[in-house]
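OP here, attaching both records as promised.
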Amino acid sequence: MKRKRSMVRMATHVPLLVRVFEMSEGDVLEMGTGYFSTLILRWLCEMHDRTLYSFEGSRKWYDRAMKKPKPFQKLTYVENWDDADIERPWGMAFIDHGGNNRRHVDIPRIADYAQYIVIHDTEPESDKSYHYSKIWHLFKSRYDYKKCLPWTSVVSNFHDLSNL
């Protein structure tokens, strides 16, 4: 039972991920691959002729994602997140990579490039791990999906998110 509960917690971002994908256009950035996000984003990108750029810092998750490469997905293994080539325009970005001390560093790098940024694990209790309180002020609009734990949030400097 414990495994099922943890798998469900890994998928709480799915409703918002799909909704934001539908609202966006252009290339998709995924920071941190996973069972749910990578499969869903691959499927959506293939159906809508968009390119998915996935960056992964864990060799285990990178190898798992490489088992089923797709022509519309560019997968990059990252040894140092500072070297990840992410400062460019994105239709949407999904932030769920490991390394608790990285998300609040990497999100500002794309704040003025990504039309929408979907961020996983944003409930207040997670701030001690992910330090999101350091980045919220960088965005003009924010929406928190609170129907299940962990929360997922969307931020944007380009779009009003009150309609989500």
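Record two, same layout:
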Amino acid sequence: MNKQRFTEDYYDRVWTKIFASISPPEEERIKKILSLIPEDCSSILDVGCGDGRITNRLISKHRQIVGLERSREALRYVKTENILGSIDYLPFRKKSFTLILCAEVLEHLPFEVYPNALKEIQRVAAKYILITVPNSENRKLNFVTCPQCGCVFHSWRHLRSFIPERMSELFAQFEVQKLQLCQSPVKLYPISLLRLAKLIRLIPDFPATALCPQCGYTILPASEIIHRVNTIKQRNRLIHFLADCMKRLLPTRKNRGWLIALYIRKTNI
């Protein structure tokens, strides 16, 4: 599959409205992001704004809000000024925005794009950079295997991991002003139980948003996936009842969550 086409197809699929719902943990992350935006921000560029789930909440709170995204499908839901573009070439002059927001983007960037993306963010940010990335992710836990060609890849297309100790190294012209960890309680499922759940199809073995980068394989359209899941639930009510009971009994723990970092430009640069 053509690499450029794969990227476009993948993100258009991810940002369809069916998969754009906001989970409680993500809602908590968004609230923390908004709380870290300094009061003196007159203009904000949200790079990789997706469907505007953060961008749209900034409307009327700051003088200028712009969202940049490479998916046309996602931009359909952005309610403020928006631009179709790529993070490694931002179509703005140096220091055009008080703050550059980049939420859940850096972990997805191809290796040839990543260095230029960091340079572009620094170039366009006048005073602040605010980013979020997964915290200390073990990417192998989210690898899936394409049932058609056998290609192994990360289901959410994460290409790198981030740890708190290295966050200060991302931007040479900026220093970390605040670094927060955003976590949420999750159920602790034994591996054997997860395997059984996949075997009886309580959870999908190949996620609905996954798109094989090698052959382009993807499963059914989103509407058909939901129909089949509902059908399985109707036919296996006892299994789902027992699964719900077991879920209530399982212990909870904090997941690794996200790192949220606010950077400020160094005074001598």
